[in-house]
């Protein structure tokens, strides 16, 4: 079969176009690799710089810094245990409040419980919560949330004061309002990611479950949530990372007390709040200790994200 000149030119153009596409794909692949390595390099650079600046405190206190309960700049005695406790407990309170509400909201917004127009508006409002600056949350917490929680805190102390968690009388800023404000701030993350995970499931899962006689709620809890569990866990861990590092809103409502108190009704502190309050005026060993505290927070956040990745991968295997 003899090819005409037009056929040969068409084949040449297709070959040239194919080579161009391959070149673009190859360039894009290496471009993404370089950018990924750049992100890792920046992360490593930050960690190394923080570690270098914290060396004087590491030499002075060692691992005792993690279990020392006093933070006294006057006598150059520094320990970050109360702040570690405050960081972890406030984040735990936030998750205990936000996960059930966020998952329930995701179910309502992903299933046909409400008309599409109403679900669209509610989804927009939930996403809008994530756009509110943290300082606004903090001011709202001072003037609205804390007065609202005061009677609840007093009631908990009067009736359950024998329990260490409620042993302190609630009079204002403290761990409880910090946990509640964090719950409100991480709620959009959990809701949006969980909703997307549920909405992206194949419709065959729903109809197959209905076909064998399952009710709507049986389908949701027995089929849909387990199928979307990896995405839900990823959203929860991402919210936990946000809660661990939140600064301004928590600083305004937690009370900024460096004393170790196990009551959620007492003023407390977090590592991020400690850095925000003292770093501007710190020098010498205090500055190095603040860098050491920042390094501790960096490690905690890194461990949380690594655990999230491990959990998500293990869940996907099942």
Automatic annotation (TrEMBL):
Topology relative to the membrane: Multi-pass membrane protein
One GO MF term attached to the UniProt entry: phosphate transmembrane transporter activity
Top-level division of the source organism's lineage: Bacteria
InterPro entries cross-referenced by the UniProt entry: MetI-like (IPR000515), MetI-like_sf (IPR035906), Phosphate_PstC (IPR011864), Phosphate_Transport_Permease (IPR051124)
A Pfam family reported for this protein in Swiss-Prot or TrEMBL: BPD_transp_1
Keyword set, alphabetical order: Cell membrane, Membrane, Phosphate transport, Transmembrane, Transmembrane helix, Transport
Start and end residues of each ABC transmembrane type-1 domain: 84-308
Keyword Transmembrane set for record: yes
Any single Gene Ontology cellular-component annotation: plasma membrane
Family membership: Belongs to the binding-protein-dependent transport system permease family. CysTW subfamily.
NCBIfam families, alphabetized: phosphate_pstC
Protein name: Phosphate transport system permease protein
């Amino acid at each position: 079969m003899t090819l005409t000149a037009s056929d040969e030119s068409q084949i040449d153009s297709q070959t040239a176009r194919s080579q161009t596409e391959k070149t673009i794909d190859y360039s894009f692949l290496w471009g993404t690799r370089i950018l990924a390595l750049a992100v890792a390099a920046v992360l490593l650079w930050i960690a190394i710089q923080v570690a270098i600046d914290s060396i004087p405190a590491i030499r002075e206190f060692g691992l005792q810094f993690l279990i020392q309960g006093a933070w006294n700049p006057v006598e150059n005695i520094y320990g970050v245990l109360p702040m570690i406790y405050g960081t972890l407990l406030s984040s735990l309170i936030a998750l205990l409040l936000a996960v059930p509400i966020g998952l329930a909201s995701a179910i309502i917004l992903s299933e046909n419980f409400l008309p599409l127009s109403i679900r669209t508006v509610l989804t927009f409002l939930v996403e809008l919560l994530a756009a509110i600056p943290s300082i606004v949350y903090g001011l709202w917490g001072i003037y609205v949330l804390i007065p609202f929680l005061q009677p609840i805190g007093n009631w908990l102390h009067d009736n359950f004061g024998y329990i260490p968690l409620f042993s302190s009388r609630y009079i204002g800023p403290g761990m409880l309002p910090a946990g509640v404000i964090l719950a409100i701030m991480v709620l959009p993350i959990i809701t949006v990611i969980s909703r997307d995970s549920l909405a992206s499931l194949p419709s065959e899962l729903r109809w197959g479950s209905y076909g064998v006689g399952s009710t709507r709620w049986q389908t949701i809890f027995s089929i849909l949530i387990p199928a979307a569990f990896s995405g839900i866990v990823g959203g929860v861990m991402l919210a936990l990372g946000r809660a661990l590092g939140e600064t301004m809103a928590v600083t305004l409502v937690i009370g900024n007390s460096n004393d170790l108190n196990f009551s959620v009704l007492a003023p407390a502190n977090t590592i991020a709040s400690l850095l925000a309050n003292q770093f501007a005026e710190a020098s010498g060993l205090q500055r190095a200790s603040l860098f050491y505290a920042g390094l501790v927070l960096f490690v905690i956040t890194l461990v949380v994200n690594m655990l999230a990745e491990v959990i998500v991968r293990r869940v996907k295997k099942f």
